[in-house]
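Fig. S4 source data, part A: sequence.
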Amino acid sequence: MNAEKIKETIHSSLSGKMTFPQIVGLLIQENIESYHVDFVMAENRYYSINGETHVESVPHKFPIAAKEFSASSVSDIIKKVQAGKINYQQFIDEVAAAGCIYYIAYLSGKRVIYFGREGDFHIEHFPKT
């Protein structure tokens, strides 16, 4: 697992230089099958096909998530970021305001699961291309 490529994806997503599809493509090339973005710990965890793992600190001040989780708000926010109406940093802030504390992207499963404080969740399938 290439830690420098992983750092590159984090910085590129936060700066708006790479879109989610571009990041997914790069991570798949690195044999990463899933990753976990943890707003509470300000870190991402990466899991490769061959069992390797990597943890990387994220240089972003994550807001404290709202107590109540709103799956419909998370879904609406995802649509905004997919349409290019907000950037990744705005996306993070908005999903936290909707109660999300972390999400796990399953690249091979083509879905992302967003989780709230009390176990609530929303599953978002990758858009069909």
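Fig. S4 source data, part B ends here. The CA atoms of residues 114 and 122 lie 5 Å apart.
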